[in-house]
Amino acid sequence: MDCLFCKIIRGSIPSEKVYDDELFIAILDINPVNKGHLLVIPKRHSENIFDLDEPEISNIMKVIKKLSQVLMKTLNAEGVNIIQNNCKAAGQIIFHSHFHIIPRFSGDNIKIGMVHGQYAEGEMKEFAEKIRAGL
User: Fold this and answer.
1) How far apart are CA 42 and CA 97, in angstroms?
2) Per-residue pLDDT at 81
3) Labelling 79: which of 20, 33, 70, 134 has CA 20 to 30 A away?
4) Left if phi > 0, otherwise alpha if psi is -120 to 50, otherwise beta: which for 15?
5) What per-residue confidence (pLDDT) applies to 114?
6) Tell me: domain 4-134, CATH 3.40.50.10540, correct?
7) By the 8 A CB rule, do 18 and 74 touch?
8) Where does the chain show beta strands of DSSP type E?
9) What span, in angstroms and rounded, lies between the C-alpha atoms of 60 and 99?
10) In this predicted structure, what is the pLDDT of residue 113?
């Protein structure tokens, strides 16, 4: 497979690994948003979150929580951003599931944001009904 993360998992591309178990690895991001920025990657190739099974999702969240606590403690981070992009329209660049954990510090001037909008009259109810109908 020609997947960048699969090559990292196999060891054919070097990485700075900080966590490794039977299901996941965590590596330092080569282009960090902040120093200590981690990528948590399932070892089984999956394109995005929709390809992960329920046990994988449950277990990866446990790893993300543990690593987030480690970043808070060891780097004296004041917070973390946990980001996961799915599909090209959402900004996914590498099509192998992965989660970013970015340590945050007051005054780090990093802007990870969204432009917030508003619903038109009646739209909120319409969207809520569509979503509920899909459950």
Assistant:
1) 7
2) 97
3) 20
4) beta
5) 83
6) no
7) no
8) 17-20, 24-28, 38-42, 79-83, 99-104
9) 9
10) 81
* No. of helices (H) and no. of strands (E), the chain: 3, 5
Q: What tokens were used for 106? A: 């007051």
Domain boundaries, the chain: 4-134
Which residues, including other chains, have CB under 8 Å from residue 1's CB and lie 6 or more apart?
Answer: 45
Q: What is the mean pLDDT of each run of 10 residues along the chain (135 residues)?
A: 93 97 97 97 97 96 98 98 97 97 96 90 96 96
For residue 130, with 0-12 CB atoms within 10 Å meaning exposed, 13-18 middle and 19 or more buried, which class applies? exposed
DSSP states of 79-98 as a string?
Answer: EEEEE---SGGGT--SSS--
Catalytic residue flag (residue 98): yes
Catalytic residue among 37, 96, 98, 100, which? 98
Contact in structure between 97 and 4 (CB atoms under 8 Å) = no
Q: Determine the pLDDT at residue 80.
A: 98
